[in-house]
Amino acid sequence: MHFKVYDLVDTGDDRGGLIPFEMGMNVPFEVARAFYIFNTRPGTARGSHANRNSEFLFVVISGSCNVKIDNGVEQSVITLNRPNQALWLDKKVWKEMYDFSYNAILLVLSNEKYDEKEYIRDYGDYQRILSADVFSGKVADASS
Ligand code: TYD
User: Disulfide check for 71: which of 2, 15, 115, 132 has CB 3.0–4.6 Å away?
Assistant: First the structure.
């Protein structure tokens, strides 16, 4: 499993919604970094990379966007359009975020601090890294 979409636990009440994040509650890792993407220019795609070590949790807290996910074997497209819906991405997953609505705010949590060295920004490099992992027995070959 290289991604998972799930509903977040809302601890809100009749005053409105409230979604907390704590290790084991709504987020499956210890959060080391958070950022959000907003005011995205129409037609813009972001991401287009994989990360050696970072897992991510995506929550579109306002508006909507699409996320294309690729593990080198399978591609999936997920639409995020509810603030109580989360997309978890494992490390070494290629992703692209696009079709941001004008009011979209994409909150991203990660288990790793930002480190440009762990970003894989070339798709050919990504495929070579995955092949090397299969060859070294680090992961099962998802294509077989
Ligand atoms: P970039 O990786 O291009 O964003 P995206 O993957 O969404 O297209 O990052 C844009 C800039 O922001 C770049 O200068 C690095 C910086 N940045 C951080 O400092 N910390 C972070 O956690 C992220 C994601 C980016």
Answer: 2
